[in-house]
């Protein structure tokens, strides 16, 4: 029964992640990058500066710039950066890492556009909280209620049964069992309790928790990665060479399947940074900001942090250790690769940081799913949603790796399609808001210099 379910979910995942969706995803990012005249590249240093700048506390919104960024980053820096990269390299070869990078580079413009529209079309809900995201900008900006409903519907399922919950719980159980010999059911119960304690407090509670956890864990993981590279510096050049050559040959995959390399790289790149899923717009809408583009610039830095920095650490470790061809998968493969390169404590670093990454990711996605449910049915079912969300953690921890990843990939694709359509058709609004921000920024500069 379970094997049949795994086969069916695998077939569905392969179908939705065919060439048309890959073209739509990457094509949208490229189109927005060119239409914005490479604004996401040119403004990246300024965007990082904005992240830590003071802001007007009187601006509309529920949480700070930084907390909104950390909520978005919390939801993305997780299994995609550790397990996702591992599954991409196993199935697609080292070249998949290159396509993850490419997805991220064009994804910055996508994330920027999601955030700018998320803030522009946000509205206050019955509890006095800000709500925004694809469901709002598709309905209010395009006037296509049915497409907005479709996005929100699939997003709720993705939050509970896919990328936001079950996949995370599965990875947590896997690494806890592999490194600490903790039974998977124990991890499932512990995470149910810890997640339940926080999500009952809503976005402000989530914002406070993740703004503390996420930066700390990312720094530890990246520092460990830098140390890993320095400690094994002789293997770095060969690893980069293999990643670049395999990206266009697919030699590491049986039969030289270049299509598989690209497919896995793009799919896992999207899973990692979520540029194209629309979640960036949901998180940005909660931020206290006076101009949509200001928060959008901050939001797009998440893609760079997530994929260009954190995923690169994992990808290099996997390729340098040369263990991706052995019969190990998921978090265990990344942990053993780190152990191979940093004997004695490599797997411990992966295990501890991944568990915290997963915890913060589940919190971020609990919020995203709740916002989508609120759009569909109001606030009456909030507590029911939170209870179902928490209960779904346990089966996620105990199901097979392939099954939960197939579900996650499928819901990702179904979320991405309506969102990408919305971004393309509203790209003119994004350009207009960007020009308005540039005018405001020029005025602020002139006022400061007077």
Automatic annotation (TrEMBL):
Entry keyword set: Cell membrane, Membrane, Symport, Transmembrane, Transmembrane helix, Transport
Main location: membrane
A single cellular component GO annotation: plasma membrane
PROSITE patterns (UniProt xref): NA_ALANINE_SYMP
Cellular compartment(s): Cell membrane
Example of a GO MF term: amino acid:sodium symporter activity
The family this protein is said to belong to: Belongs to the alanine or glycine:cation symporter (AGCS) (TC 2.A.25) family.
Keyword field contains Membrane: yes
Gene3D superfamilies hit by this protein: Amino acid/polyamine transporter I
The keyword 4Fe-4S belongs to this UniProt entry's keyword annotation: no
Entry's transmembrane regions: 15-34, 146-167, 179-200, 212-233, 239-262, 303-325, 345-368, 380-401, 413-431
Protein name in UniProt: Sodium:alanine symporter family protein
Membrane topology field: Multi-pass membrane protein
Database matches in NCBIfam families: agcS
């Amino acid at each position: 029964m379970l094997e049949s379910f795994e086969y069916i979910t695998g077939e569905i995942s392969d179908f939705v992640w065919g060439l048309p969706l890959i073209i739509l995803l990457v094509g949208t990012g490229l189109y927005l990058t060119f239409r914005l005249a490479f604004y996401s590249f040119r403004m990246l240093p300024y965007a990082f500066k904005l992240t830590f700048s003071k802001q007007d506390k009187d601006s509309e919104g529920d949480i700070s710039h930084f907390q909104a960024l950390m909520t978005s980053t919390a939801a993305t820096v997780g299994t995609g950066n550790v397990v996702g990269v591992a599954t991409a390299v196993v199935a697609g070869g080292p070249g998949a890492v290159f396509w993850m990078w490419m997805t991220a580079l064009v994804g910055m413009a996508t994330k920027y556009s999601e955030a700018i529209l998320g803030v522009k079309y946000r509205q206050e809900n019955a509890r006095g909280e800000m709500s925004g995201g694809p469901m709002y900008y598709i309905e209010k900006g395009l006037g296509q209620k049915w497409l907005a409903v479709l996005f929100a519907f699939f997003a709720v399922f993705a939050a509970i049964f896919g990328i936001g919950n079950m996949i995370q719980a599965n990875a947590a159980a896997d690494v806890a069992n592999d490194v600490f010999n903790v039974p998977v059911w124990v991890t499932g119960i512990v995470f149910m309790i810890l997640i339940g304690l926080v999500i009952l407090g809503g976005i402000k509670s989530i914002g406070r928790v993740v703004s503390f956890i996420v930066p700390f864990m990312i720094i530890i993981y990246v520092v460990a990665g830098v140390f890993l590279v320095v400690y094994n510096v002789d293997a770095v050049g060969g690893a980069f060479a293999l990643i670049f050559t395999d990206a266009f040959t697919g030699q590491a995959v049986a039969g030289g399947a270049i299509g598989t390399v690209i497919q896995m790289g793009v799919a896992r790149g999207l899973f990692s940074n979520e540029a194209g899923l629309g979640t960036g717009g949901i998180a940005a809408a909660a931020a206290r900001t006076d101009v949509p583009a200001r928060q959008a610039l901050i939001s797009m830095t998440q893609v760079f942090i997530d994929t260009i920095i954190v995923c690169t650490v994992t990808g290099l470790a996997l390729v340098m250790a040369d263990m991706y061809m052995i019969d190990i998968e998921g978090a265990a493969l990344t942990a053993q690769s780190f152990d191979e390169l940093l004997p004695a404590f490599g797997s411990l670093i992966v295990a501890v940081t991944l568990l915290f990454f997963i915890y913060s990711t589940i919190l971020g996605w609990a919020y995203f799913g709740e916002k989508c449910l609120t759009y569909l049915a109001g606030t009456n079912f909030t507590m029911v949603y939170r209870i179902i969300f928490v209960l779904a953690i346990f089966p996620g921890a105990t199901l097979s790796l392939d099954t939960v990843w197939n579900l996650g990939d499928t819901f990702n694709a179904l979320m991405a399609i309506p969102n990408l359509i919305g971004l393309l058709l509203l790209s003119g609004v994004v350009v207009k808001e960007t020009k308005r921000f540039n005018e405001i920024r020029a005025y602020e500069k002139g006022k400061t210099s007077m």
